[in-house]
Amino acid sequence: MESLRALKNCSPELQQQFRSDTISEEELVGLMNKFVEDTRNGVHQREGWPNSTYGVTKIGITVLSRIHARNLSAHRREDKILLNACCPGWVRTDLTGPQAPKSPEEGAETPVFLALLPSDAEGPHGQLVTEKKVVKW
Fold first, then answer.
1. pLDDT single digits (tens) 97-135
2. 27 CA to centre of own chain
3. Dihedral angle at the C-alpha atoms of 62, 67, 73, 76, nearest 10 degrees?
4. How does the average pLDDT of the chain come out, rounded?
5. Cβ distance 97 to 103 under 8 Å?
6. Domain ranges in the chain?
7. At 13, is the secondary structure helix, strand, or coil?
């Protein structure tokens, strides 16, 4: 749940922007560019960012998923496409190493669950999902 951990370590102002139900893709790109610039200038923590580039990228992916889900609802509702961000948890991979508690098969459970939702499912949509459950963004 690195995206939530990183979000909680953002300033209240940044949290409000990232949690906005009306944030646009352009606004998100602007925030991501600001993080890069603030980090480059060594002021990212003073400007309210967490000290985790990985965490900020996860925030960006989650927010972008929410934006695209909102756009699908507005422009392609009849297609019944559900779009969510999901966290597989801490999975043993070459990147994370053997200490991670989940096997790759266990990490695949939530993404597969979402991919196999019935065609008449109405949700979840535009959410962050982990352990097959929606978590509050």
1. 999 999 999 999 999 999 999 999 999 999 999 999 999
2. 16
3. -110
4. 96
5. no
6. 1-79, 82-132
7. helix
Which pTM does this prediction carry? 0.92
C-alpha span between 113 and 41 (Å, rounded): 42
- Structure tokens of 64? 């972008």
Please tell me what DSSP assigns to residue 79: G
- Which residue type sits at 20? S
Res 70: pLDDT: 98
Residue written as token pair 């009849």: 78
SS3 78: helix
Catalytic residue among 16, 45, 54, 132: 54
Residue 107 identity (one-letter amino acid): G
Active site residue 86: no
The total number of residues written for the chain in this structure? 137
Helices (H), the chain: 2-8, 12-19, 25-40, 53-75, 104-107, 109-115
